[in-house]
Write a structure and sequence with these properties.
By secondary structure, this protein is α/β, with parallel strands linked by helices. It contains seven helices and 18 strands. The chain has helices at 23-30, 92-102, 141-150, 168-175, 214-224, 235-238, 273-287, and strands at residues 4-5, 12-16, 34-36, 41-46, 49-57, 64-74, 79-83, 108-112, 118-122, 127-135, 159-167, 180-182, 196-198, 209-212, 230-232, 247-251, 264-268, 292-293. Helix 3 (141-150) crosses helix 7. The longest helix has 15 residues, at 273-287. The protein is elongated, with a radius of gyration of 26 Å. The termini are close together.
């Protein structure tokens, strides 16, 4: 099974051995030695080489107990040890990011990270989530929030966010209008020399193209009694192009609750980190992604 990650880095021990890091050498070294009751995995080092073994003991209640079972999980030609003090080794997504960015193709990546803690990921294969968002602003809020969540979540599987960003300025310019209406001045969209009005300022009605969403069209009808020509900028609508892929997006028609039980999950436009976490939880749960928090 891919994405084997210890539940807690306290289950991982780092030790130097004199025996060759082979199946036979590792069994000779560890069998019968005492191990601390929390130790389940040992990263064995010999010179610049390392191997990963899983150990079982005769009992887990004594402080130390003799090792009675040794399973070699990875040998030196399958391993890499990365020193990166910025990595929290308790977070699966951070371990997976190191594995895919600094040791691509390596089966077992051990990380010596923040607080001098050491952990590993075996057979890294992070699950991808497309985050469909509009820009500006920069950084894209939903993408930034989702990254902050997975970078601090020890109980989520290894995840990798794939940004799908729609440039609102380009969306407007490609429409080729002579006058644009944007939802608000704070949107930060640039349209070159083309005149721009802002819906939240309730300007006098003109012959414009609305770059907005369903809520903007509702507001326009309320203000002016009709719906103008428009280009939809709702991330939830734009995400339909990625409907078959696991996606996280947002919509201002949602005011409180997270929506979606399939590959696409949508959170309210102004979501807190807790709400974004709820959206990611739902997406992970409905996708039934396999991982092995051992």
């Amino acid at each position: 099974m891919s994405n084997l990650v210890p539940r807690r880095y306290r289950e991982v021990s780092l030790t130097r051995v004199d025996e060759p890091l082979t199946e036979a050498g590792l069994h000779r070294h560890f069998m019968g030695r005492e191990a601390y009751r929390r130790t389940r995995y040992v990263i064995a080092q010999r010179g610049t080489e390392m191997a990963l073994v899983e150990v079982g003991t005769e009992a887990r209640s004594p402080l130390f107990s003799p090792i009675s079972a040794v399973t070699v999980l990875a040998l030196p030609d399958e391993c890499a040890l990365i020193h990166d003090p910025d990595v929290d080794t308790d977070v699966p997504s951070q371990l997976a990011r190191v594995a895919t960015e600094q040791a691509l193709g390596v089966r077992c990546v051990a990380v010596h990270g923040r607080y001098e803690h050491v952990s590993f990921i075996l057979d890294p294969d992070p699950h991808e989530i497309r985050v469909v968002e509009v820009v500006p602003p920069h950084p894209p809020k939903l993408l930034d929030q989702a990254q902050r969540v997975i970078d601090s979540a020890p109980d989520l599987p290894p995840l990798r966010l794939v940004p799908v960003l729609v440039d609102l300025g380009k969306l407007a310019r490609d429409a080729g209008a002579e006058h644009y209406l944007l939802p608000c001045r704070g949107s930060g969209i640039t349209t070159g020399d083309v005149p721009v009005s802002f819906l939240d300022e309730r300007p006098p009605r003109q012959d414009w193209l609305l770059i907005g969403c369903a809520r903007s069209r509702e507001i326009h009808r309320w203000f002016y009694g009709s719906c103008p020509p428009n280009v939809d900028m709702c991330p939830r609508v734009l995400a339909q192009a990625h409907a078959d892929a696991p996606s996280l997006t947002k919509c201002c028609l949602l005011e409180e609750n997270v929506d979606g039980d399939g590959p696409q999950v949508t959170v309210p436009w102004g979501s807190s980190l807790d709400t974004v976490r709820e959206g990611l939880d739902r997406l992970v749960r409905t996708m039934e992604w396999t991982w092995a928090p051992a």
